[in-house]
Amino acid sequence: SRAGRAVTFDRVFSSDCTTRHVYNDMARHIVTDAMKGYNGTIFAYGQTSSGKTHTMVGTPEEPGIIRLAVEEVFDEIRNTPERNFRITAAIMELYNEQIFDLSQTTRTSCLLREDSFGGLMVQGLALTVITSEEDVFELLAQAQTRRVTAATKMNAGSSRSHQIFRLIIESRLARDSDGEEDEDEAANYDGITYSELNLVDLAGSERQS
Length: 209
Known about the structure:
By secondary structure, the protein is an alpha+beta fold. 26% of the residues lie in helices and 29% in strands. Strands 1, 2, 3, 4, 5, 6, 9 and 10 form an eight-stranded mixed β-sheet that branches. A two-stranded antiparallel sheet has the order 7-8. Strand 7 (149-150) and strand 8 form a beta hairpin. The radius of gyration is 19 Å and the shape is globular. The two termini are 28 Å apart.
């Protein structure tokens, strides 16, 4: 506790716990809910070398939460033939209070604007249509090479920016061979669903020195 205040953890994982175990216990339900139309965000927070990027991004041999979430999304699509899905993705970097599109080779700052519904949007952020897991992994690999890193006392290649990977999930009832929606299915769904799933790898919480 700090200053007499108690801190409660939802779960404490042991040092030999796998990322997949963490994903199944803490993140999977957020992904499956996003497939049903609910917005969700998953992020890792901590100081440099605490394992944030390893947990969120991982490696091909030991996939992180982002990769596991993407695999879950496409598993859900394959297992939900009664709905048609459209998946788009964007990946951005927040560095020194500026937003950069990591899907683009040219490093140009994007602007934060208010949209017509009173929410916020990133003007100039490209959306990429995603048709497979491989599309996502290629986009992530390109983004990692463009992200700002720098040496700190604890990590020679520390991420010095926040990375936000956003999946936009749209779906609607599939139509039968006659072009009609099934009445029973239509009663269970309210037309088109739309949700955003944000997967965030934060920068280290300490100053660079």
